[in-house]
Amino acid sequence: MFEQPEAALAAMDLSKRYGSGRWALRRVSARVPRGRVTGLVGPNAAGKSTLIRTWLGFEQPSSGQVLVDGIDPSKHNAEARARVGYVPQMARVYRGLTVAEHLGLFALLRDRFDAVLAEKRLIQLGIPLAARGRELSGGQQAQLVLALALGTDAPILLLDEPLAHLDPLSRREFLKVVRASVNEEGRTVLLSSHVVSDIEQSCDDLLVLGIGRVLLHARIADAVDGHAISSRGYDAHNVVGDIVASDGSTLRLIARPPDEGAGERRANLEEIVLAYLAAARTEQ
Amino acid sequence: MSWLRLAWRLQRFELMVLGAATLVWLIAAAVITWQLNGYAAQYPDCFGLTTAGAPYCEDASLQFAPWDQTGEAMLWLVLAIPLVFGTILGSPIVAREIEDETAQLAWAYSRTRTRWLRGRLLPVGALLIILLAAIAGGAELLEVARLGGENPGFQRFDQRGLIVVLRGVLCFALAVATGTWLGRTLPALLAGAILSGILIFGLVIGLGAWRASAGIVVERNSSGADEILPLALVIEPVAVLDDGTVISDRSAALPEGESFDALRIIPGDEYWPWIARESASLSLLAGAATAAAFVVIRRRRPL
Fold this sequence. Notes:
heterodimer, A: 9 helices, globular, B: 7% strand
């Protein structure tokens, strides 16, 4: 019924305004490539969750359009959601249900839910099947929801800041499972996070969202190769913005490969993200 | 996992409390019914519509009275039970999922929200109907026992039988709809209860007015009145003037020498048509409230 497009997720000129109040998203256009992990980075209120929830059909665009595997979720919600697994921010599970009952619930909710696969993952992670939701730690709850998402046959996973409240060890385990699902099962993952090091560790692509619009969308390797850090600040044409280094000095991010002879060096991902966000804030 | 098991796991506390309350009410009703039936069997000449008024009936009545009064109080309780049960079971179905943020998961993964709501609604609704049907049936038997085994006709028709169950279903549907709209359990519980109270009160007034316009006038002392009146629904005392004008007791303009010696009634043989009308009204309103919940949930944010 629906043709499979190149991009797993797409947003075209998407704007979202809550009532007559603030704009959560303004003319956002982005295409999340299939079979890769895309990191969605941005400060609080940048519109990350709104964008994800629009792809889920939880929010209706004020203008523009979103597509999930070529399907518009505002028109064909069930078909679009059937292609998506979702791990919400601070994943909440049913406090009174056991882990095993969550598997049963998902089998009830979702056709072709692979409870055996999900159970296997949970056992591998040492999450007791008899434990109730209220007895699980934040990390275990996030892992449970991820296992449930992976138990569906959804080719796309939308992960809305699932790492926000996890300790470093839980974060690492979570990201390992996400990475494996992409490498072994060919899924597409959109991972929203505040923590740039997590994105750097696990993502192929980067989408920086600030003040409701896309500031940067590139492969991480290309972004790192294509940005230079200079302390002198010439080449005004390609300047992205300034960031303050830990020693208090001001560094300038330039959107081109570094000229090492001129004292420039390659920017790291954190510097790139910070400079784009700082520039957007100044512009605002 | 089935939808029924899920309902039990998610609303176990409410179901257990209401189940226990139902059991207590039923046991109390059974004891009272058994006692009243015992007196009626022991003194068959003293109770019912055609009592012989034997000399020992005064003593029998004295023994009967405390059980009868307790039974009456139990039946008054039945007026509140549909509202309490319906709102307690209906308000958390959607509201608690939104409040606990589990709606995000449920709605993201269910094929459609309509299917999810149907799956959540039906088992709890069915359990509510079972509880209320047990109480409504118990109330029916209790009322019959209070009348010494006679057909109660219209007596306390809205405190027993089908009306009790359908009022509960209406309150349940309204609580689900307000819970879906508000997304918070306690406000939904209060708003659902208030809305249910207003609607049921409005329906009682509306149907009362309809019955008043459809009622017939029967002279208290006319031949056959003794047969008609016990099963009838008495709407109001009226006076019938010589020119045939009927004046209700709410009117202050009763001519001198006249008295309210007649009654406006709905005869007992119209019991089922009127029960059917009230049932249809309650079912329509419950259907509208359920439809509203299904409409709201399709557009609602899960947070």
